[in-house]
Task: structure prediction
Amino acid sequence: MCGSEHDKPCPATMTPPWSNDIAQHGNDGTLDAGTHSGSTELSIFSIDFTQTRRLERIRFYNRIDCCISRANGAEIRVGSNATWSSNAQCATLNSDFDQTLTCKLTGQYILIILRGEYLNFAEFEAFGTYFEYLGNSIAPVFSSATTSCRCNAGYTGTDGDMCLECSAGTYKSVPGPALCTPCLSNSTSVAGSILHTSCQCNAGYTGANGDMCSECLVDTYKSELGPALCTSCPSNSVSAAASIIKTACQCNAGYTGKNIDACSECLAGTYKSELGGARIYNHVVLEIYNKTLPR
Result:
């Protein structure tokens, strides 16, 4: 069913139609009147759900007063394209009056395609488990109230209302109105995350995805998100806890280097008293001599 309250037949078309045919009679919930195509070359009956539906099965009621064999070989196709040939086939009709066939496909359109014969029948019905509605929400098919629509995992909002994507650093694992859950301290996730393991430790912190994150110790660093271990600074260098880049490692006092790949010991006659790649100073020795001045 379609409409704002899902209580009206979905739009239907027959191509080409019989002169005064009403295609909606093939999808009006009754067997009182049917629909009839106007060609034996290629006949197409189409129902537009107006939104994506997940189908499970179809039920086809053939014309019983005449020409029941005409439906034999007709294809049932489902997809998101109004052009029949772009959609997948899920079933083939026979000449029985009442046919229930499996049709596990997803799409906005369901079509009956028949070549070489008129397409005429009493009623065509489609059944599904769920349909998507109000963007990023889901509800049982043929629900009669918008409050049946519940936000998907990764989205939050009141039942029947718009659903907002969980922001970065949060996640939501189940459908419904529940709030998004923040990741544990010192971890983050991408927007719309649905699993707690989407939460990854920040740079400067380490731990399994979705678990507690510990800061990298002094003399180590970690540059990327995720569960990787912290990397030790090069020899004779040091960094602060929770460092996020290699250049946070600085050469110790008494050692120097133009880059952080290696720290070299200060040469004899030089010294360096601070961390980092600071300049080296020459060591100057002052000698003081006692001298007797003339009286």
